[in-house]
Amino acid sequence: MPESAGQYSAVYVSWATFQGALKQLSQALPNQIDRTVFPGLSWNVQNQLFTGLKFLGLTNDAGRPAPVLATLLSDDEKMQKQRLSGLLHEKYVELFKLDLVKASPLQIQQAMSEHYGVSGDTLEKAIRFFVAAAEYCGIPMSPLLAGKRPDGTMVRKRRGPARAKKSIVDPPSGGTSPTNGSEAKNGTSKTVGLESGGSLTLSATLDLFALNPKDRSFIFELIDRLEKYERDSVKMEKPEGGVSSAS
After folding, report:
1. Rounded CA gap, 214 and 58, in Å?
2. Which of 126, 138, 184, 237 is the most exposed place for a label (fewest CB within 10 A)?
């Protein structure tokens, strides 16, 4: 169980969904935050969001907003960042003990797994949320935690033995990193190779923060399904009892 937030695991809903939820709640904060408040989100994403709100102490077990939630719904972005930064320092004590400026990705992974009740894919999502939230707040951290080199350029993860056409995840020329919320205006695309031959490409030119809940849920569901198909296909290509050799 997580030591810093009772029975709830660390936040592992996407940062974009969390920000979208805060923006929606800022329009009208209900007495109870339940599934009817976010009808455009899938059941699974709603569960992730509600767990995250409880972990951060923004709602109680019954889904009723805590006073601190109202302080995050400010139109003043600078004030919102300050309040969220304080909340991160309070709820992720074990991570900040590592000194984020010097901590390695492995140290963050181990601390998150040991103290905040997450593992596997959920662990990776929880780390992504924390890093994105910390970056948004301007909290100093090692560029390695954000997948960057010391010069600020992005580090590409090696994908293993899959064929080159199997996965292409690159924003078009002039595009930006998905973590800063502005990539939608320039466009981004994802291509997945199909087992029966050929490929499928999903491309979008949009502003994530301007989407209504229904559209946001639809788009993230498509992305999740493409990534799952890709992971399953890669697993099937690996020979049993051995390791594929790199070309």
Report:
1. 23
2. 138
If you ran DSSP here, which 8-state letter would residue 206 be given?
Answer: -
- pLDDT tens digits, one per residue of 4-24: 445 789 999 999 999 999 999
Q: How many domains does the chain have?
A: 2
Q: Which of 131, 133, 123 is nearest to 100 (CA)?
A: 131
- 172 vs 133, more confident: 133
Q: Judge whether residue 146 has pLDDT over 50.
A: yes
Characterize the bridge pairing of strands 199-204 and 167-168: unpaired
Considering the domain architecture, whether residues 141 and 187 belong to the same structural domain is answered as no
- The band of 164, judged by pLDDT with boundaries at 50, 70 and 90, is very low
Tell me if 6 is assigned to some domain. no
Statement to judge: residues 102 and 174 lie in one domain: no
- For residues 131 and 145, the answer to whether their CB atoms sit within 8 Å is yes
